[in-house]
Structure formats: C-alpha cells, structure tokens
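dumping this here so i dont lose it
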C-alpha cells in the first residue's frame, strides 16, 4: 500500500510544483511587465537626450558705442559659456565636495543615497531630502520642472541614466557648470564670477570658488549680493567639506575662512540708459525680442561715449542752476526736467541722448517721446519757407502791434512781442535774431500757414502741426529730436537725413543680422540752407543767443520760449554737429520768472558744444558758389561798413540788394 500512496504523493507534489512554477513565472511576468510599462509611461514624454548636443543656451546681446564702449548687456538669463579647462580645480572640487562626492563613481544616480533619502522622506511624511546627483540636477535643470513628486523624481533618474550613457563625466560636469543657476541673475559659473567678483571664473581664488559652489543649494538665499553674511557662512561650510575630503590643506582652509567677501563695484554699463531703451525698442520691432535677448548679438551704435558724458554733464549742471533759482524764488512743484540730443549733421547718426535728469527716477525719454511747444525755436522754419520762396534776409517787415481775426467769429487775436516793445520796420535777419513775434506772424500770413507746414514736413518734422497763424510762434508740439534734425538740414547743405542710432547688428559668427537703410532726401536748396545758416549765425552773434558768442568756432542756432516760461529751448549747430536742448516741468507748469530759452536752455547747449568741440575738427559752414556775401545794416538792410555795425549777410545772386 505504501508504494501506490508514495506514487500518489509524488504526483501531487509534481503538480503543485508545476502550478507554483507557473504562478511564479506569471507573477514575474506581471512584475516585469509592470516595470516595463512604468518605464514606457515615464519615458513616453521625456525629451530626447540627443537634443542636448544641439542645445544652444541663451547668450548675451551686447550694445556698444561707436568708440567701442560697452553700453549695455541684454539677456533673459545672464549666461556666459566656459570650457572645463578654464574652470579652476578649486571650483570643481568645491562643487563635488558639496553636491556629489561620488560623481565620478556612480552611474548617474546614488542608490544608497536614494534609499537613505526615501526612509527619511517616509518618516517625515514629505520630501525632506532629495539625494540628487549632479547628473540628476542637470537633467532637472535642462528638461524638467522643479515640482516635488515621485513621478518627476523617477523621470529625473531615468534621464540621469541616459545622460551617463551618452556623455562622459567631464562633459556632464561642463554642462552643469555652464547651466546651473547661481543667484542674482547668474546662470553658469562664468556669469556668477563676473556678477559677484567682476572677473572671469578662470581668475577665481579658493574662497571665491567655495562661495560660488555654495550657492546652487539655495541661490536666492546664499547670493552674496542679497545676503552677504549667510553667503560667507555657507562658503565656510563648503570649505570645511573640502578639507574633509582632502581637496585642500589645513593651511588653505585657515586662510580661506578668514578672507572676507568684499562687494565689488560692478562694471558700469548703460552709460546712456535713455539711448539704450531707444535702441531696444527699435530692435524688438526689427529682429524680435526673442532673438534680441537670447541670440548673443553684437549691436554697434552711432553713440559717442565721450559726447554722451559731456551731454550728461552739461544737462546736470544746467538743471541744478535752474533748481537753485527756483528755490530762491520759493517756487514749489515738481523739479525741472530736461533733455538733450546731438547728431552728426552729415550722417544723421545720434551722438548723444539724455532723456531726463535721472533715469532711475523716470525712464520717460523726453528727447524722443515728449512733445512740447517749441516757441520761437520754430521760427526758423517760417523764415526758411520765405527764403525758399524768394524772400531775402535784407527785406524789411513791420514790427508793430497788429490784430487778426480769431478762430471763432468775432474773436480778435492780438499777438505780442515777448518784451512788449516794437522796433518798426526791421529786416528779416534782425527779426529772427531778436526773436520778435509780430514779424513772424506777419510773415506766415504772407506765406500761408500750409506752406510753412509743408516746409516743416520737408525738414523731417512728423508731429501734427496746426495750419494757423499761431504756428509761427511755435504753438504746435514737436519732439527735441525732430526739431534738432530739422535744424541739421541747414548745416547739411539742404539735405534731410532721418536720425538713426544703430550702425549694424551681427551674430556670434560676425554675420550681419540687421542694418538700417539710410533715409536721405533733398529738403531745400543748398543756397537756402546756406542763407538760413547765416541768419542763425546772426541770432548768436547779434541776437538772443549772445551768450554763445565767445565760443571760437562757427555756430548757428535759435532760442525758444513758450508762454509763462513753461518751455525753454535752444537748438543749433556747428559745421559738424547739431544739438537740441529742452528744459521744462513734466506737468507744464512754469519754470519761473524770466526762465527763457536764452537763460535756461542756452547755457546747457553752450557748455555741451564747448566741451564737444575740444575733440572735433574745426570746420566752416558750406557757402555755395552762387551765394553773394554783402555787409549790410541788420536793421535796415542797406549797405554798411563793418566798422559801422554792418554784418556779413548771404544772398542769392538774383535776389541780392543792389548797393
């Protein structure tokens, strides 16, 4: 009986064994399938690691003046790439000692570290320890978000394994050192070194390396610009870790922890902030903001760094003097503002631009965006219209009280001279030189306001102009830049040039990305331009611009003052450059009693032109061959000797008065 029973037991055992084996393999298949399914689920939306080979991180676009001074750096994230060979060994060792001591030994993930962190996370009931290797941190930085979930951590681990399979340890470390955020806008160690120490990463010493390596753990907290004391504490912890792993000696450690962090004076860029803003607006339209802030372009501009400094210096001094006079007169209200712009009369290139007294208090650019009444600074456009139509500067016009029909029925308009005095019959030259209002109004009545508007358009003024008699007194608003460009036509032999600021934009390979096309046109005859220049020389030598008379080079220009001294202007030019100055209050309140163009704006213009021409060549104004030069009495236009007060006046040959 035992035999059959044993056989039955053996049979039952064999069946159970087969069932168990089958169950085991089924369970194993399910587990493997689950694992494989999970992996497929995790990697189905992971980025391709190969994309890293063609990955181009955002680079810095730099804007330079014409004399190669760095004006500004544009970037979304400040990032400068540097090869591993230029990164100090101390920085690499500090980073490894702090972030990943087993970097050169693990496969991309630290299994023991993960297990240890998992236990601590489970005990705490939340993520308290990440156990991320440098490779995992790189994977997260490049491809993932910072969310704290198990799914993200698993994806991070898978990506880290893929990175380790495809790249060497040194390549991974190089990627990391050039990508990770170090605080205060610095991405990568080169940017961090320049922001925190004003030097290249290759020049960093031991304590500097340790401080930078200390920051990835909490960049916003440990940035020395934000929290210098915390940064030093964290740096010293890194130094202790370096000592522990044998990366530095005791002597190195003792010296390094005693070294203070000295906040550096960061390199001054954007010495022309209003100009830089002006440039940025143009480029955002022409090449797009994404390319501008990420493509690492080089932007060469027309700005002269030297002339920009002179312009800022002159405006600051002039506004300070006006503010002092306002205090003495007990005038409250906002502080006075000002703007100055200068351009090359031959090319139209903007050489200096100051849009206000303090960019940090107000970024509004009053040189290009503010439209203000120019007052008498608009009168040269009226006289230019007359000269183009065959009038000559020796012609006489009546300077006496006059009345005109107003804009509404029954209304009478009675313009007045600023001084409330009248000179009777005077020449066009003297009327312009002394900025008499009545002759300008009488002249625009003869010419027709529409013809004056047409001249303004020819000279490049694009702002809206009202075609009324009051236009002659500068009641229509214009910008400093467009009025200065209009005056530049006189110095440029009648050729109009649209002001421009950018010479060329190139990419990292030196290829041209964008270059503006020059805009030039014939705005008026060469003869008329020479005559207008001569008349505006008279405004300085004989009239309201007299305080610029001492400058030892040819100058021409005109003052401008609006009612109640709300705006003060001086716009003028030499044979080389044109410059316009505006002073006023943003709310259009009065600058103060007698704060005219000659008192408030002209000193700024004179100071600037004096400084500017110390570096500019001496030139003469253009005189066409068919211009007749006569010496006349500026009041009557009759021939006169120079010794008797006669002035040198230009005429067309066909309109020159006979002796």
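and the seq i came up w/
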């Amino acid at each position: 009986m035992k035999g059959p029973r044993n056989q039955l037991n053996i049979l039952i055992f064999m069946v159970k064994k087969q069932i168990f084996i089958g169950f085991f393999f089924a369970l194993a298949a399910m587990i493997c399938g689950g694992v494989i399914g999970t992996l497929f689920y995790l990697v189905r939306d992971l980025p391709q690691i190969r994309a890293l080979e063609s990955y181009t991180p955002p680079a810095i676009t730099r804007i330079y003046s014409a004399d190669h001074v760095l004006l500004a750096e544009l970037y979304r994230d400040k990032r400068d790439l540097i090869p591993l060979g230029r990164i100090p060994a101390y920085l690499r060792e500090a980073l490894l000692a702090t972030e990943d001591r087993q970097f050169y030994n693990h496969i991309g993930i630290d299994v023991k570290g993960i297990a240890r962190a998992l236990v601590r996370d489970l005990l705490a009931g939340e993520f308290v320890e990440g156990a991320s290797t440098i490779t995992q941190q790189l994977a997260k930085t490049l491809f993932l978000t910072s969310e704290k979930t198990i799914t993200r951590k698993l994806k991070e681990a898978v990506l880290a394994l893929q990175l380790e399979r495809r790249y060497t340890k040194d390549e991974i470390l190089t990627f990391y050192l050039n990508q990770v955020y170090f605080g205060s806008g610095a991405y990568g160690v080169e940017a961090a070194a320049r922001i925190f120490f004003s030097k290249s990463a290759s020049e960093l010493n031991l304590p500097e390396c340790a401080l930078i390596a200390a920051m990835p753990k909490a960049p916003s907290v440990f940035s020395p610009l934000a929290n210098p004391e915390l940064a030093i504490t964290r740096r010293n912890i890194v130094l202790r870790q370096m000592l522990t792993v044998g990366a530095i000696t005791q002597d190195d450690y003792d010296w390094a922890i005693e070294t203070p962090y000295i906040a550096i004076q960061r390199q001054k860029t954007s010495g022309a902030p209003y100009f830089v803003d002006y440039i940025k607006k143009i480029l955002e339209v022409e090449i797009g903001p994404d390319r501008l802030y990420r493509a690492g372009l080089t932007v060469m501009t027309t700005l002269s760094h030297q002339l920009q400094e002179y312009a800022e210096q002159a405006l600051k001094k002039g506004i300070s003097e006006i503010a002092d006079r306002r205090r003495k007169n007990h005038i409250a209200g906002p502080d006075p503002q000002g703007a100055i712009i200068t351009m090359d009369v031959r090319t139209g290139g903007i050489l200096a631009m100051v849009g206000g007294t303090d960019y940090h208090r107000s970024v509004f650019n009053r040189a290009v965006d503010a439209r203000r009444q120019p007052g008498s600074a608009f009168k040269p456009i009226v006289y230019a219209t007359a000269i183009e139509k065959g009038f000559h500067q020796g012609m006489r016009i009546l300077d006496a009280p006059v009345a005109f029909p107003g804009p509404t029925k029954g209304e009478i308009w009675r313009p007045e001279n600023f001084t409330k005095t009248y000179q009777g019959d005077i020449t066009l030259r003297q009327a312009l030189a002394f900025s008499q209002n009545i002759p300008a109004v009488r002249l625009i009545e003869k010419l027709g306001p529409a013809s004056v508007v047409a001249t303004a358009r020819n000279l490049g003024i694009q702002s809206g102009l009202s075609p009324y008699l009051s236009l002659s007194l500068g009641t229509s608003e214009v910008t400093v830049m467009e009025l200065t460009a209009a005056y530049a036509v006189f110095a440029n032999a009648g050729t109009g040039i649209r002001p421009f600021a950018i010479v060329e934009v190139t990419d990292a390979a030196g290829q041209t990305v964008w270059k503006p096309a020059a805009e030039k046109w014939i705005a008026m005859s060469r003869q008329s331009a020479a005559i207008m220049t001569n008349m505006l020389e008279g405004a300085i030598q004989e009239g309201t611009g007299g305080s610029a008379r001492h400058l030892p080079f040819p100058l021409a220009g005109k003052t401008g003052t609006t009612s109640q001294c709300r705006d003060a202007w001086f716009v003028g030019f030499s044979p080389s450059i044109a410059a316009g100055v505006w002073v006023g209050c943003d709310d259009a309140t009065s600058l103060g009693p007698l704060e005219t163009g000659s008192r408030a704006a002209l000193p700024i213009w004179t100071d600037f032109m004096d400084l500017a021409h110390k570096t500019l060549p001496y030139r003469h104004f253009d005189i066409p061959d068919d211009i007749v030069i006569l010496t006349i009495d500026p009041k009557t236009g009759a021939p006169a000797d120079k010794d008797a007060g006669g002035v040198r006046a230009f005429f067309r040959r066909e309109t020159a008065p006979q002796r």
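The first strand starts at residue 61 and ends at 64.
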